[in-house]
Design goal:
The structure holds two protein chains of two kinds. Chain A has ten helices and 24 strands. Chain A is an alpha+beta fold. In chain A, the strands form six sheets. In chain A, strands 1-2-3-4-6-5 form a six-stranded antiparallel β-sheet, with helices on one face. A six-stranded antiparallel β-sheet of chain A has the order 16-15-24-23-20-21. Chain A has a four-stranded antiparallel β-sheet with strand order 17-18-19-22, with no helix packed on it. In chain A, α3 runs antiparallel to α5 and α3 packs antiparallel against α10. The longest helix of chain A has 20 residues. Chain A is globular. The mean pLDDT of chain A is about 95. Chain B is α/β, with parallel strands linked by helices. Chain B has one domain: Rossmann fold (3-Layer(aba) Sandwich), CATH 3.40.50. In chain B, about 50% of the residues are buried. In chain B, β1, α1 and β2 form a beta-alpha-beta unit. The chains are: A alpha+beta, B alpha/beta. β12 of chain A pairs parallel with β5 of chain B. The complex binds adenosine-5'-triphosphate and zinc ion. The site of adenosine-5'-triphosphate has 16 residues of chain A, from β2 and β3. Adenosine-5'-triphosphate binds next to β2 and β3 of chain A.
């Protein structure tokens, strides 16, 4: 069905040569081609004739976005525009690299994340990218399962389809994809904006954890899902399947086993943020939805609390205390914990403290690790904590002496050592001698 | 914590695509073979789409009619992702469109073809004929129009060849703009595929509206329909579908 034949050649607005190599795929509004752009491989999105309501305004918005540049490296941002050819036009972006998959591939189990840590990393990338975009005053508008490319190995995320990104509250003509639109959009009370983006993002996050759609509980199983019922399910009567006060849309044990399994294991604060995101109030009132900053804090805490067991299981610890692996029964070796202002996290090898766990920070810095637990060279049993930030910490030794810890310097894990950075103090606490036994 | 391997794929609703295909004697020769190839190709594409579609699982049902009507999918609609194989149809007999509509009507029910744990979306129903009905299809049409699955489904018609009754097929799908008239076998094959693909993916697309699309709306999205293949009949020349009355659908509704 390709509109452009292989070998088709044109010049872009930035006066670069572009040659079509082959069709990669097709979407609702257009086709995506593998092209040679200025001599290097790239992707070209080409709009179907007459698929845009107001092509001139759409193209101008794209041009503005190109001039401004990508908000963060997660975005497969438009790089250049073509002129009008054969009654249409397109834009150039980078190609999706190897090893990245669609959300649908995860939802249908064609690929799996190797661990929950990787799931959390993917969620963190998504949240962080939208936080930056929203802070810049833009909204994505058409956030759905087709927009993300995820690498399951490292949780890296790339966000495509950036052609509807526009200054918040701009009408681009698109309302979004069924199942991912916020209730106020489904009910035509509002046009897409950053708060409706927040809803759609939360749907994606729930799906990545539970492989279910948060609003598709028991009620989704009606024999005939008519458009009128869809409007209720995703709009006027939207109800989270885990809503504790109204079980009308509760998970069905046969169909929604994923949600039941995962939900039972999630820590309280993770359940709480999903409950907040899909509460009756948040479904009706866009401003009641948890912000990206709150998502980041919650997800980083969750990531910090996961400790790998020798059996391969991921143990969810609580408050950094030792516990047993529920799969193999072995105790998790957590000799120390790191006490932050609100909670404590286990100090196990590989544990990280992120910048956003130390109070308010710039969106771009939120996921920078500031501290990491490392093992001494050749002594895997001797752990220390390394300064991964670019500034010096003020530390206090067990004897009460003040010390500076330079970037990349490592201090030993010892009960009572305190260090502060960005006005926040972290204390190293021992979990008792028995927890140190191998 | 369950490991990520312990989770199963996300539940999806069923989306049924019904094909109601004319295999009367006049289809003999190149037409029936064009139809068989069109179906073969279409099914392969739909299979791929279903595997990559997070929004619905596609099921196919094929009803062939000549003297009487017979399901090719005898055990009910089949999941395309499983090993469904299309068996080539043969031509011969009359054009009992009425019988086809009656048979379709009897199976468009959650107690017949449309029942499953997951429940279904509104079906897509694609009709194809190359002639004039040899029985009283009007009464059958009045009956099937009372069927809510039929009334709310997406209906599209193909009139194949010079002798196809465009008025009849327009009446059946309820809107002449949901009909394509083709005389060229090659074009028919291509459009059959495009139409099937577009109607099966419609839920997966970002839109500017959120109603279930009509057959006419689907055809507006299909590229490459030549002007002469578009049918635009006067409303007095056929029996257009009456406007569906707004019903207040309910979660516990068992009238389906
Ligand atoms: N940068 C890219 N590199 C490689 N493949 C891409 C790239 N962008 C999109 N694709 C692929 O091209 C196909 C079509 O993409 P497109 O964005 O048009 O689809 P869509 O999300 O369904 O579109 P729409 O939102 O317009 O309905 C998809 O299969 C997608 O995986
Ligand atoms: Zn274990």
């Amino acid at each position: 069905m390709a509109t452009l034949e292989n070998g088709f050649h044109l010049r872009t607005e930035f006066h670069r040569d572009l040659t079509v190599n082959r069709l990669l795929g097709e979407g609702g509004q257009g086709e995506v081609y593998h092209v040679a752009y200025d001599g290097r491989p790239a992707a070209l999105k080409w709009y179907k004739k007459d698929s845009l309501k107001n092509p001139a305004a759409f193209q101008e918005n794209l041009r503005q976005n190109i001039m401004r540049g990508a908000p963060s490296r997660e975005f497969l941002w438009p790089l250049d525009l073509t002129g009008w050819e054969r009654g249409s036009f397109g834009y150039v972006m980078d190609l999706r690299p190897e090893g990245y998959y669609d959300i649908t591939d995860f939802a249908l189990c064609h690929v799996r994340f190797p661990s929950y840590k990787a799931v959390i990393d993917a969620c963190l990338s998504i949240v962080s990218a939208f936080r930056i975009l929203h802070n810049d005053g833009y909204s994505y508008q058409d956030l759905n399962d087709g927009n993300f490319f995820i690498n399951p190995r490292n949780g890296k995320v790339l966000i495509g389809d950036n052609d509807n990104v526009a200054p918040d509250k701009t009408e681009t003509g698109i309302v979004g994809k069924p199942r991912y639109m916020a209730p106020e959009i489904v009910l035509r009370k509002n046009m897409p904006d950053s708060l409706s983006d927040r809803f759609s993002m939360s749907v994606i996050l729930y799906m990545l954890f539970c492989l279910n759609h948060p609003l598709e509980g028991q009620r989704y199983l009606v024999p005939a899902l008519t458009p009128a019922l869809e409007e209720k399910l995703y709009g006027s009567e939207a109800l989270f399947m885990m809503d504790p006060d109204d079980r009308g849309n509760a998970p069905n044990p046969t169909v929604h086993g994923n949600s039941i399994k995962v939900w039972n294991c999630l820590p309280d604060y993770m359940r709480k943020i999903f409950l907040d995101a899909f509460s009756r109030k948040a479904l009706e009132k866009p401003s009641a939805r948890p912000s990206e900053a709150v998502w980041l804090n919650t997800l980083t805490r969750f990531r910090s609390e996961i400790v790998p067991c020798a059996c391969g299981n991921e143990i969810f610890t609580q408050d950094g205390r030792p516990c047993r692996c529920e799969k193999c029964g072995q105790p998790a070796r957590i000799p120390f914990r790191l006490q932050l202002s609100q909670y404590a996290i286990p100090a196990a090898r590989g544990s990280r403290v992120y910048r956003c766990q130390l109070g308010i920070c710039d969106a771009k810095d939120a996921l920078n690790p500031v501290a990491m637990v490392v093992a001494k060279e050749n002594r895997p049993d001797v752990l220390g904590i390394r300064n991964k930030s670019d500034r010096r910490w003020d530390a206090v030794t067990t004897k009460g002496e003040a010390r500076k810890v330079a970037p990349e310097e490592t201090i030993p894990l010892k009960d009572g050592i305190r260090f502060s950075a960005w006005g926040e103090t972290i204390e190293i606490l021992s979990n008792g001698p028995e927890s140190a036994a191998p | 914590m369950p490991t990520t391997n312990e989770l199963t794929d996300m539940p999806r609703k069923d989306l049924h695509i019904f094909y109601v295909l004319d295999t009367s004697g006049s289809m003999e020769g190149t037409k029936i073979s064009a139809l068989n190839h069109a179906m073969d190709e279409t099914i392969e594409v739909l299979r791929t789409i279903s595997k990559q579609n997070g929004d619905a699982r596609l099921k196919i049902a094929v009803l062939s009619f000549n003297t009487g009507a017979e399901w090719i999918t005898k055990n009910g609609p089949e999941y395309l992702e499983e090993h469904f194989e299309y068996e080539y149809l043969e031509a011969g007999g009359l054009t009992d469109m009425g019988a086809a509509l009656d048979e379709l009507n009897s199976k468009l029910s959650q107690h017949e073809f449309l029942g499953s744990m997951m429940g279904a979306l509104m079906p897509v129903i694609i009709f194809m004929t190359d002639g004039y009905a040899t029985d009283n299809y009007e009464e059958a049409l009045d009956n099937i129009r009372q069927n809510r699955w039929f009334a709310r489904g997406t209906k599209i018609g193909f009139a194949l060849g010079e002798d196809a009754d465009v008025k009849m097929i327009s009446s059946i799908v309820g809107n002449s703009e949901a009909v394509i008239r083709v005389t060229d076998n090659e074009l028919f094959r291509r459009l059959m595929r495009f139409v099937s693909v577009t109607s099966s993916m419609v839920r997966s697309r970002s839109s500017t509206a959120d109603n279930a699309p009509t057959g006419a709306e689907i055809l507006q999205q299909v590229e490459g329909i030549p002007e002469e293949a578009k049918v635009r009949l006067d409303k007095d020349d056929y029996n257009p579908e009456p406007k569906a009355q707004e019903e207040d659908d309910d979660w516990g509704d068992d009238k389906w």
